[in-house]
Amino acid sequence: MSELHKRIRRSSLHEKIMSPEETIPLFKNGMDLGWSGFTPVGYPKVVPAILADYVEKNALQGKMRFNLYIGASIGVEIEDRWASLKMTDKRWPYQTGKVIQKGVNNGEVRMGDKHLSLYAQDLGYGFYTKENGGKLDLAIIEVTGITEDGGLILAGSVGVTTEIVQIAKKIILEVNTSIPSFEGLHDIVMLDLPPHRTPYLISKVEDRIGTTYVPCDPDKIVAIVESRFPDNGRALSAPDECSEQIAGHILEFLQHEVKSGRLPKNLLPIQSGVGNIANAVVGGLVTGPFNNLKVWTEVIQDTMLDLFDSGKLEFASSTSLSLSADGFRRLYENWDFYTSRVVLRPMQISNNPEPIRRLGVISMNTPVEFDIYGHANSTLVMGSRMINGIGGSGDFSRNAYLSIMHSPSTRPTKTDPHGITCVVPKVTHVDHTEHDLDILVTEQGLADMRGLCPRDRAQVVIDRCAHPHYRPLLQDYFDRSQRECFAKGMGHQPHMLFAAYAMQKNLLEEGTMRMAGWS
Amino acid sequence: MSELHKRIRRSSLHEKIMSPEETIPLFKNGMDLGWSGFTPVGYPKVVPAILADYVEKNALQGKMRFNLYIGASIGVEIEDRWASLKMTDKRWPYQTGKVIQKGVNNGEVRMGDKHLSLYAQDLGYGFYTKENGGKLDLAIIEVTGITEDGGLILAGSVGVTTEIVQIAKKIILEVNTSIPSFEGLHDIVMLDLPPHRTPYLISKVEDRIGTTYVPCDPDKIVAIVESRFPDNGRALSAPDECSEQIAGHILEFLQHEVKSGRLPKNLLPIQSGVGNIANAVVGGLVTGPFNNLKVWTEVIQDTMLDLFDSGKLEFASSTSLSLSADGFRRLYENWDFYTSRVVLRPMQISNNPEPIRRLGVISMNTPVEFDIYGHANSTLVMGSRMINGIGGSGDFSRNAYLSIMHSPSTRPTKTDPHGITCVVPKVTHVDHTEHDLDILVTEQGLADMRGLCPRDRAQVVIDRCAHPHYRPLLQDYFDRSQRECFAKGMGHQPHMLFAAYAMQKNLLEEGTMRMAGWS
């Protein structure tokens, strides 16, 4: 019996096995598609590539367009290829890839982003496909096996696969035989519709409340295809000096909170975003003073394996194993050790306010920019150009015990190594409001905004977080704004509304946000 | 035995009874105070007034300043009097009153606003009074009785009284003998600290999970004062034509959702904010086609009594009975009927994402303005001038099954009956992001933004919600922004960033937002 047949323990499904080419007639222009996958792990790698081949070969660019509902990012080899073949119409809720980003920003791709937990439930509620009766026409799901009852054993991510399976009319399965069966790693709960939703009885990070497989109506399964492509995963670059400094400020702050009795000795469950700074923070924990740590997050990256290896991390809950190729190798080599300490959940649960708030998660994420009053922009450069999407940053920031945003204080432009200040008077787009965030950090220092009114916040953010090159300019903005607004009796959150984006204007015209002054 | 003594069923506390004047020595300049009260019901009415008399008589203005942590608004006769006597330094998280608002906006009062559910828990976590060991120096709590065990039987609101009682060093009780004992109306759950928080097992609006009293260490009680002042409550004005039109659009939409199978016949639990439009919506439900309704909200206003009387409302959960004087009279006259159908919860629970999301609440709130891409401003006029505070609008909007924001499409200025458009290119302050809101409504119509990318959202909002006087101006902004941004490859959410507030500038300079054009 082939490995593929072994993985499909419900033998009546063997007759649905076919070649990827045979699935092509299932696709029609304008369909709503749901795919497994998250940051880019567990997405279908065979059928989308074959369909792209078909479109290219038959010059169907612009004539085979689809609406894609996925957990988050998928591999660029698929994402960008589909975008370049004009196959992507709507795309929710997150993407990475140069071609897709170009399409999103030139009007070719209609992308939307919503907080991941909300997106998951709204997809399940049928809100995104109202015109389609709340259904998806077709799903493509990567699995590592099928149980005797037809339950789907997923791969390295869950994302919105649960909701997709619930609302899909037809399902294509890609059984990945190049990686082990991930059976036992998932804790699957399907979405109930209100008024019939019940509490998620998770009081500890490691609590399990569901099944190890996604229940699936076998009649929906129209094709099963073998996949032999492992996830390429996501490699991390080594932390730089700036990231190390930011991590240092955060670790010092956490120690101070423990001393003050506002955090237990082993902290509270940690959520850490993606990127250099997140890695540096986790790296700091590897050598730091805290033990018996737990992680409640949406992505587990390679550095989390280091934290497990250090013996300091007890358990991690996530919706995705966003490891590098090397990270996956480590995982497979030490499978029992790691997998007994990890659970993968639907993102409707990993990102749900309910467990995040109950568990008291410490959230840490990197925005594009934040402002002196404590608003952050995570998605749109200059208020318009989409980068990737909001992801789970809002789910975590709004509901965390401590909501931390970290960023370098400046970024370089072509002509000025500090041409962009990430601490601005007023962010050009708001993803996280002043009502959401507690702590802002740059390599310059840490601003604890808890309990401060907007004006007190502004002063501490300028003093602690702004780069010295920009501090006088920001202070001048704040001082002038106070004078102007107090005189008009409108100084709760002082702004010079019509000059608030002058630094951004200077950037476009002069290549740097360092400008002479405000008048 | 006096009524006061009867209400205090723990007789050992009778010795703490004193005159309000005798409490004055308990107050010291700079103290952190916690008061009961919410929208303005259940706040202390005696001691704060006596302390104000004392400050006035002894010319202590500016020498007796306090930080006030309350549930939400209190009566203006206290709020504004304290502000005029310079007694209010910090003030969280919401206020109403002309004098306090002046102070907030001229720099005298340091106000902060956070989502009510978050504010409640962060107060309980000790974040607002870090410098004070996370404690409040003194609490003043209105009660309608004390149990044999010293449990506090609250009055017409809960708010953050639970958290205040937990972190207060000393407590003054005002026993209100002018109103009935509200025993049995409250469902009290105290705040546990993570990692020891547990699920709130509320699966139906009417589920009770706590006690009918607030557990309180009797040693903390330093004074008991009698109060004979009933709540003045909050009167409502009759709905105007604009509000009726908005309510009409919403009711039609809800019927459409029922027909489409996306809502049950009796809808889902309703949250309705304060003001004319909210009244009109509830008024529409009184005569509308829906039965067996439930309400999960933060304030119960007079129109909810009408809805009970109509037989269409089964149960309501709230943190406050924000009734008018006449409404309270109706409540007392038909006490058993109403109170068997109402429960009052701590706002940490009434506004908590956990039950709001689980129950699938339909939220409806009025912002100051919203923009074509679906952001809303609920707090700051011109991005700077504070009105009242964000209240619970973010708690509900972010977590609702359907998140609805409603507003008149225009407001008058001195010189133009349509001088202000509430539908703008870019809101001057963001309290609710594009990732939070589903439906925008004005008297012009209803825009269903679910599943739409920003550009598709903008078109439907302009077409459905904008006033005809402003539609061409907004369309022109949108068209030009697309051309400019697509050309630069930054058109996911097209803006002319440096012209986005031109209409607001025109308003300040010309008294109307109707302007000639964008160039």
UniProtKB/TrEMBL annotation, chains A, B:
Highest taxon above the source species: Bacteria
Gene Ontology MF terms in the entry: acetate CoA-transferase activity; acetyl-CoA hydrolase activity
Main location: cytoplasm
Gene Ontology BP annotations: acetate metabolic process
Subcellular location: Cytoplasm
Membrane-spanning residues: none
UniProt xrefs under SUPFAM superfamilies: NagB/RpiA/CoA transferase-like
UniProt domain Acetyl-CoA hydrolase/transferase N-terminal: residue ranges: 11-226
Keyword Methyltransferase listed: no
Keyword line: Cytoplasm, Hydrolase, Transferase
Protein family: Belongs to the acetyl-CoA hydrolase/transferase family.
Protein's UniProt name: Acetyl-CoA hydrolase
Organism: Desulfuromonas soudanensis
Gene: ato-1
